[in-house]
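Sequence in, structure out.
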Amino acid sequence: MADNDDWRLQGQDLVLKGKTLYWRQYKAYSDKWKHDHCAFCFEEFNENDSPDTLHEGYTTEDNYHWVCRECFDTFKNLFEWEVGF
């Protein structure tokens, strides 16, 4: 359950409230990008084989915003997310 004082909440509702998110293997949004970060906790998503990075997570349809499983579970009700297929 999300607490409105959670340090991870930094205005993400402006772009992520009410969105449909998809569980996907990480793929960079652009050829110019090497990695992304969770929109909440900043854990790194990367296509490489590094054990220190995430390789799948929840993302918007365009793969622009990424959310790790833990943050998805914490904020799914607050942000009213739907899960797409």
